[in-house]
Specification:
single chain, about 200 residues, alpha+beta, two-stranded antiparallel ribbon, Scoloptoxin-like
Length: about 200
């Protein structure tokens, strides 16, 4: 009898210790809704606060974009994809630079100041994105700096999984077609995969 009571007490106490999940999952504790909206990792609010979510990939081409509204501490990758129904959707992926660094639009990297171009000038270098995805002689990307011969590695091209990337030359849809969801349609990863993104 004592063993049955002991087991019953153990089961009831362990059941009481298990937290009940919320019915609606919100942002991680300490994570702002803006950080969650952009799909940024936990802790982004410690690097950028408050987070401005006004940047959009709508009407932009394939490329990397410094987010001037967030003092270049955040950058976005705009990637047009061809959907299975033949429409083009613009995917927007957002990233936060490591603490103490800024996204340099000239080098397309997160760099520690003073080695970065001033953030206020970033938009004047957006044109450099026209080289993203282009391959020059010997398989070296057009915008890449020369690589030391002993450091060169063969190029590896990943196989497409679910979407087919669209090259900039293919972005002009026929005159009678409309982009998926209207002119300002931008798909963020969280919404694309069923989350609360866009």
């Amino acid at each position: 009898m004592n063993s049955i009571v002991a087991v019953l007490v153990l089961v009831l106490s362990s059941a009481a210790a298990v937290p009940v999940p919320d019915q609606e999952q919100g942002p991680v504790r300490g994570e702002s809704p803006q950080s969650a909206y952009l799909g940024l990792p936990s802790g982004s609010d410690e690097i950028v606060s408050p987070i401005d979510i006004s940047f959009s990939c709508a009407h932009r081409s394939l490329g990397y974009y410094a987010d001037v509204g967030n003092e270049c501490k955040i950058f976005h990758v705009c990637n047009p994809v061809l959907l299975s129904d033949g429409q083009v959707a613009m995917m927007q992926y957002s990233f936060v630079c490591p603490n103490g660094t800024l996204f340099d639009q000239q080098s397309l990297t997160c760099t520690a100041p003073p080695g970065t171009a001033p953030c206020v000038q970033a938009e004047s270098f957006y044109y450099l994105n026209r080289h993203v995805g282009q391959v020059g002689a010997a398989g070296v990307p057009v915008a890449s700096p020369p690589v030391q011969p002993e450091l060169q590695r063969p190029a590896v091209v990943p196989e497409p999984k679910h979407e087919t990337p669209v090259h900039q030359q293919q972005l002009a849809p026929p005159a009678d077609s409309k982009p998926a969801g209207g002119d300002d349609s931008v798909v963020r990863p969280a919404s694309y995969y069923g989350g609360k993104g866009n």
